Amino acid sequence: MKRTLLATIDFPPQTGGVANYWANLCRELSSDSLVVLAPEATNSIDFDVKQEYSVYRQNLINKNKWLWPKWLPLFLSVGRLIKSERIEFLIVAQILPIGIIAYIHKKLFNLPYGVSLHGLDLNLTQVNFRKKWITKLILNSADWIIVNSEFTKRLIKKYFPEIKLKIEIVYPCPNINSENVSQVIKDNLIVKNDLSGKKIILTVGRLVERKGQDMVLKSFLKVFEKVPEARYVIVGQGPDQARLKQLVLDLGLGNQVIFYDKVDDSELPAFYDLADVFVMPCRELPDGDVEGFGIVFLEAGVYKKPVIAGRSGGAVEAVEHNITGIVVDPNNEKEIAEAIIYLLQNPEHARALGENGYARVQEKFNWAEQAKILNNLLQ
Predict the structure, then answer these.
(1) Fewer CB in a 10 Å sphere around the end CB: N or C, the chain?
(2) For the chain, how many structural domains are there in total?
């Protein structure tokens, strides 16, 4: 593996999909050949000392309104590390602004680089002509591109049809283990929320419109008519929380819906294990906000849970229709309700879908297998 520098704005102990994505891939790469440049963060030292590769921390984006460009500290840090660590290859974790630095270093010093793209960051490159033009320059000069889904790959070809570069898919993978379920936490959840004998519908994800928790709520009265013991548990935080809680009141759902906004990694397995069905009817919004993949569907698969996904973005790759779950029209309350009712009333088929989901995760969606793709690109 070439001596490689990963430059990223998102990295643990920061939370989020991109931070977890890179932390897990880094764990599988050759530690002797890998260097990471990431922002300073609370408790970052505790994380960094546990890693076998080198991690450098700095405030990468300047917040002084009088200093331009904002990415100047990042540019200087990358330059110093390239020299001191004898870097042979640069990985761009966020195309803007890190891709600009990579582009400049390639033009000046012929340093090769690769770019990583997810659905949302690619959409953000389309907000104005300047960003689209800069992105096109960066991609045209890159040695390769990796994406998190086939959907994101198609998005690149849609926005930049002239790009003929090699594009590889490196899927995100679940980090949770079905053996980590705390029976104490699970029992407490059941007692506290009166869930004994209930059918549990679960959504885990940020409370934002594209995730579709509102559509599950709107479909729930139909579900409740057919399955009166059904309860809906929503795990996550986000700006849509107040609207969702008001929707519960407006629909008169009362104690049939339970919100958990703060759930740590030790508690999350108990929620998955408790669920009968996992549902997230994600949809694409008019502004292009869309689910790039949907790691939570795979997490549910780890616990052998049948899943229901919205037919949008990369979710259709995470869920195989009628094999690991059911894919529905995310804007159709009736279709969502029917899918939930079917899985709750047909436990044998639901169990088979869950088993298929588990097998698929074990075979394909593990970090060691996905890291091999990236490792091959770095040879």
Answers:
(1) C
(2) 2
pLDDT per residue of the chain (379 residues) written in tens, 0 to 9 = 999 999 999 999 998 889 999 999 999 999 999 999 999 999 999 999 999 999 999 887 777 666 678 888 899 999 999 999 999 999 999 999 999 999 999 999 999 999 999 877 887 788 889 999 999 999 999 999 999 999 999 999 999 999 888 899 999 999 887 788 999 999 999 999 999 999 999 999 999 999 999 999 999 999 999 999 999 999 999 999 999 999 999 999 988 999 999 898 889 999 999 999 999 999 999 887 888 899 999 999 999 999 999 999 999 999 999 999 999 999 999 999 999 999 999 999 999 999 999 999 999 999 999 999 999 999 9
For residues 217 and 269, membership in a common domain is answered with yes
Dist. CA 268–CA 3, nearest whole Å = 37
Q: Which residues lie below 8 Å from residue 179, measured CB to CB, with a gap of 6+?
A: none
The burial of 16, by beta-carbon neighbours within 10 Å (0-12 exposed, 13-18 middle, 19 or more buried), is given as exposed
Residue by residue, DSSP assigns 133-161 as HHHHHHHHH-SEEEESSHHHHHHHHHH-T
Which residues have CB under 8 Å from 37's CB, separation 6+?
A: 5, 6, 7, 8, 56, 58, 60, 77, 78, 81
Task: Say if residue 58 is in the same domain as residue 121.
Answer: yes
Contact 153, 147 (CB under 8 A): yes
Give the domain extent around 155: 4-171+367-377
CA 345 to chain CA mean position, Å: 31
Interatomic CA distance for residues 145 and 159, integer angstroms: 14
Give backbone dihedrals phi and psi of 129, rounded to 5 degrees, phi first. Answer: -65, -40
Q: Whole-model pTM?
A: 0.86
Whether 46 and 157 share a structural domain: yes
Distance CA(102)–CA(268), nearest Å, equals 38
Instruction: Determine the Cα–Cα distance for residues 266 and 183; give it in Å rounded to an integer.
Output: 11
Residues 156 and 184 occupy one common structural domain: no
Q: Are 139 and 225 contained in the same domain?
A: no
